Amino acid sequence: MKIKGVIFDKDDTLIDLCEFWYTPCRETAKYVLEMCGLEKSDCNIEEMVTACGFDSDGRLIPASPMQSGTNEDVIDAFAEKAKALGGKLPCDMHNIAFDFFHDSLIRFGKAVPVNGVDKVLRELKNKGFKLCVVTLDEYAITRHCLEQLNVFELFDTVICADTVENPKPAPDAAYRFCKEFGLSPDEVIMVGDAQKDMIFAKRAGIHGVLFDPHDRFEKSSGEFVINNMKDVVKIAERYPDVD
Fold first, then answer.
1. Do residues 101 and 25 both lie within one domain?
2. Who contacts 129 (Cβ-Cβ below 8 Å, separation ≥6)?
3. Do 45 and 142 share a domain, yes or no?
4. Which domain holds residue 72?
5. pLDDT band at residue 243 under the 50/70/90 scheme
6. Which of 188, 187, 209 is nearest to 198 (CA)?
7. Are 176 and 82 found together in one domain?
């Protein structure tokens, strides 16, 4: 059966995660410290940023809220760390911090494309594939990123944590994509950089393509494992005869 639809994760698949999220996280960390009556020292800021998912060099920490959670998970991590540091959490802290984080993402987040992704998206679109984004981020932030990259119009649909009842790795988003465009799961591939994306693909019965440019995973982690984004086109066009 030929592939007719391609689903993409967003962070570290379409855009550089650290480039977009690191500065907004630091700004939110400082804001939460102030809200909780804590000193905005370099040490406290570093502990807060680490709790959400970045190490002291600004690199992503595997399996952290930033890598595999939602924006609400990030705020929960900030709150737990502020409390552990001796801060007093205001009763409405979560909602206020969430709104500040959202605004910081729009203000400070810089969407830097993964190398070659723009060309790949346009080639897939020109060849007639249905394109979709499935992400744990919010719709407003996701659209903001895609518009910064000038690729929003290439996607037939965008499904986010706040637009589906059960976000990935639950299969709901894939089911919606298939239903909306009359596709069977066997006609769809999922391109993502994390194990959660491959779990999502398996649960939905679609084909998992693990994007692993730094060789972090075992080759058995996905049905296909690629180092270069341009290989997505080859898989989509040639499946099941992919060498």
1. yes
2. 3, 4, 5, 6, 236
3. no
4. 18-108
5. low
6. 209
7. no
Which residue's entry shows tokens 């996905």?
A: 222
Total number of domains in the chain: 2
| Last residue in a domain, options 93, 108, 123 | 108
- The verdict on 135 and 162 lying in the same domain is yes
In whole angstroms, give the CA distance from residue 80 to residue 150: 37
Q: What are phi and psi of 110, to 5 degrees?
A: -115, 110
Instruction: Take residue 7 and report the two structure tokens written for it.
Output: 């689903």
Task: Quote the CA–CA distance of 3 and 1 in Å, as a whole number.
Answer: 7
Counting residues of the chain whose pLDDT is more than 70, the rounded percentage is: 98
Q: Which residues pair with 183 in a beta bridge?
A: none
Q: How many CA atoms lie within 13 A of 226 on its CB side?
A: 20
State the average pLDDT for the chain: 94
In a 3-state reduction of DSSP, which class is residue 208?
strand
Cis-peptide, bond into residue 240, ω within 30° of zero: yes
142 with 135: CB under 8 angstroms? yes
Residues 220 and 144 in one domain: yes
At 45, give phi and psi (nearest 5°): -60, -45
Domain match, 155 and 230 both: yes
pLDDT over 90, % of the chain:
89
Element (H, E) at 6: strand 5-8
**Residues 75 and 39 placed together within one structural domain of the fold:** yes
Q: Are residues 11 and 125 in the same domain?
A: yes
